[in-house]
C-alpha cells in the first residue's frame, strides 16, 4: 500500500465520530499492514499528519484528532485593539490576547491551542502560522517632531515595530502614501517600499490605498495587456460555425446607465400556456484560453471590484467593454439558456447551447421602469419593445411567486449609492431603489443559473456550484432571541430549519420600522455563500441546484462553468482523464474564488464606510432620525435613512446611568427605567466624524419636555472614548468596518 493511501486512510479514520485514540501498533493492526515497508510508510504518514496538526499524540502516545487534543485550525480575526478570535462553526469562538497572537495578523491561517480558562470563555494561543494572508501593506509617512519621517500603517490592527529597508531610496514628504511588501513577519516586521501612491490629499489616493491593501490592483501585467491587444475586435464567419443563429430574435440588454460590461441579454416570447425565456450570456471563455496570461490573471483576481469612483475589472477593458460586451446591434458570441416557463412560473423545459446574437437595443433600468410605469415618452420611444417588456414583467412575477412559495428569502436591506463630484468628494448619499426592472433581471438570471446547475449535475461533469448551506443552529438560536425581543416567535426547530420558515418570519416584519435591522440580523445569522465543486444547494434561494453562469465578464466561476460546458456539455466526446484532472482543479478554484470574492466585498465596504465618514465630516451639527441598529455596553449604533451608521456613546446619555443587558440586547436606565433597544426610532445630532478611522459619532436629541437629570457623581465614569467595535456578547457585527451590505453592480449575487 502506498504512503498516500495510508495517509488518506488515517485521515478518514480519525474523522469518524466514533474514533477512539489508537497506539501505533493498534493503528498498524487496524489498517492491516504487515510488511516493514508498509510500517515505514505508515510512520512517515503519521509524522506528516502530526507536522500539519491534523493529528496529535495523547500523553500515552496514542493518535487522536487535533481537536480532541485542543488544537484548532482556521483564519484569525484580529481587531484594532490588538486581540483576536478564531471562529469555530460548532463551538464558541476562541479569544486570543495580543501577547498570545505571537505576531499573527488578521486573516492568517493558524494553529491555535486552547488554553485552560478560569473566566468561562475559551482562550487560546497561536502555535504556528500556516499561511500569511497579508503580503503587502499600505501606509503613510508623516513627520514626527524630533524623529523625522515615521511610517503609520493603514491597518491599525498591526502592532509590531516596523523596519523599512529602502525608505532612503525615495523622495517623500509628510503625507506620502506608499505600497509596501512584507519581507519578514513578526516583531519587528521588515518591509520594503514597492510603489509611491501619491499624497494622502490627492483625489483618488484614498480609494486606491484601500484597493491595494486587499491586493486588488487596477493595473494589469504587460503580458496580459499584450494578449488582450491580440484579441479580435469582431466576430469572424468561422467563429459562427457550430453555433445557433439567434440574430433574428428581439434581444435586449438591461443595465445601469453607467454600465459598460454588458454580459447578459434577454428576450421573452408569449407561447401557449406560458413564456419562452431566453437568457444569452457573453461567451467569454471563447476569448480567454485556459492557462493563458489572461486566464491566470482572471483567476488571481477572481472577480471585478466595484467601488464608488471606479471599477477594477477582472478582465482588461479591451475585452470586458469590447468583444465580450453585448453592445447594441453588433454581432457577439454567446452561450444561451432558453427556457419554457409556465403561467405559474415553473420551468417546463430548457435548452443550453452555443449561439451568436445581435442585440436589438441597449436598455437601462430607468427606461424599462418608465415603460412599465406607463410614461408616455418612454413608451413612444421604445414602442416596438413595450409588448415584450410587458411579457417580461408577467414572466418575472410568475417566477418570483413560484420562488416565494418555495421559500426563497428576499433580504431587502438598503444599499447606498454614493454620488461624487469631480474632486472625488461626496455630493450626496442616496438609497438605491430596487424597482421592477431590476427584479426582472434578477429573476431571469437566477432561473438561468438554476437550469445550468441542474444540467451540469445531470451530466455529471466537473463544475463549480454556488453553495449556500443551512444556517448553523447556534447562530439561529441567537437570532431567535433577537426576534423574541421584537415581539415575534421563531417557529420550528433550529436544527431542521427550512427557508420558508425564515421567509415567513421576515415577511411578518415588512411594515415594522425595525424591518431593515431584522433583515440584516437574519442575513448575519446565515452561512456565507461560497463556490464548491459539490452541489450542496442554495438555502437562501430554496434551490437544490444552483451555480453562477450569467456574469463571466466579472466572475471567474462563471467563466469556469462556460469552459466546462464547452468541454463536456455540447455533445463533445468525453475524455475521462481530462475530466478527472478538471475535477481536481475545481476544489482549488472554489477556494480561491471564494477568497477573492470576500476580499472584493471587504474592500467595497471599507471604501463605502470611509466615504460615508468623509461625507459626515461636513454634516456636523445636523439633526436626523434613524433606527437603533446595534446595542453594546458602550452605547448604541443608529442607522439613518441614507444608510449612514454612527455611535451614540453611553457617556453621552447623561440623564441616567445605563446598564447593558446582554439578554435583551438593550441599555436600561438605572433610575428612569428608560430602555434603548434594537429597532427603536430615535432622533440624533451629528457630533463627530473621522474619515481616517471610519468613525461617526452621534448625540441623542431628546424631546424638549423631557427633563435631563444628571448622573449622580458617585456613578460617573470618566475615561477615553472606547473603540466602537462590538464585543463578543453584543449584536454580532464583525467589526467597525462592517456596517453596511455590499453594494452590488447588478442584483445577481445570490
Automatic annotation (TrEMBL):
<dbReference type="Pfam" id="PF00773">
    <property type="entry name" value="RNB"/>
</dbReference>
<dbReference type="GO" id="GO:0006402">
    <property type="term" value="P:mRNA catabolic process"/>
</dbReference>
<keyword id="KW-0540">Nuclease</keyword>
<dbReference type="Pfam" id="PF00575">
    <property type="entry name" value="S1"/>
</dbReference>
<dbReference type="InterPro" id="IPR012340">
    <property type="entry name" value="NA-bd_OB-fold"/>
</dbReference>
<feature type="compositionally biased region" description="Basic and acidic residues">
    <location>
        <begin position="701"/>
        <end position="710"/>
    </location>
</feature>
<keyword id="KW-0378">Hydrolase</keyword>
<dbReference type="GO" id="GO:0008859">
    <property type="term" value="F:exoribonuclease II activity"/>
</dbReference>
<dbReference type="InterPro" id="IPR050180">
    <property type="entry name" value="RNR_Ribonuclease"/>
</dbReference>
<dbReference type="InterPro" id="IPR022966">
    <property type="entry name" value="RNase_II/R_CS"/>
</dbReference>
<dbReference type="InterPro" id="IPR001900">
    <property type="entry name" value="RNase_II/R"/>
</dbReference>
<dbReference type="InterPro" id="IPR003029">
    <property type="entry name" value="S1_domain"/>
</dbReference>
<feature type="region of interest" description="Disordered">
    <location>
        <begin position="701"/>
        <end position="750"/>
    </location>
</feature>
<keyword id="KW-0269">Exonuclease</keyword>
<comment type="function">
    <text>3'-5' exoribonuclease that releases 5'-nucleoside monophosphates and is involved in maturation of structured RNAs.</text>
</comment>
<dbReference type="Pfam" id="PF08206">
    <property type="entry name" value="OB_RNB"/>
</dbReference>
<dbReference type="Pfam" id="PF17876">
    <property type="entry name" value="CSD2"/>
</dbReference>
<dbReference type="InterPro" id="IPR011805">
    <property type="entry name" value="RNase_R"/>
</dbReference>
<feature type="compositionally biased region" description="Basic residues">
    <location>
        <begin position="734"/>
        <end position="750"/>
    </location>
</feature>
<dbReference type="GO" id="GO:0003723">
    <property type="term" value="F:RNA binding"/>
</dbReference>
<protein>
    <recommendedName>
        <fullName>Ribonuclease R</fullName>
        <ecNumber>3.1.13.1</ecNumber>
    </recommendedName>
</protein>
<dbReference type="InterPro" id="IPR013223">
    <property type="entry name" value="RNase_B_OB_dom"/>
</dbReference>
<comment type="similarity">
    <text>Belongs to the RNR ribonuclease family. RNase R subfamily.</text>
</comment>
<dbReference type="InterPro" id="IPR040476">
    <property type="entry name" value="CSD2"/>
</dbReference>
<dbReference type="GO" id="GO:0005829">
    <property type="term" value="C:cytosol"/>
</dbReference>
<keyword id="KW-0963">Cytoplasm</keyword>
<dbReference type="InterPro" id="IPR004476">
    <property type="entry name" value="RNase_II/RNase_R"/>
</dbReference>
<keyword id="KW-0694">RNA-binding</keyword>
<feature type="domain" description="S1 motif">
    <location>
        <begin position="621"/>
        <end position="701"/>
    </location>
</feature>
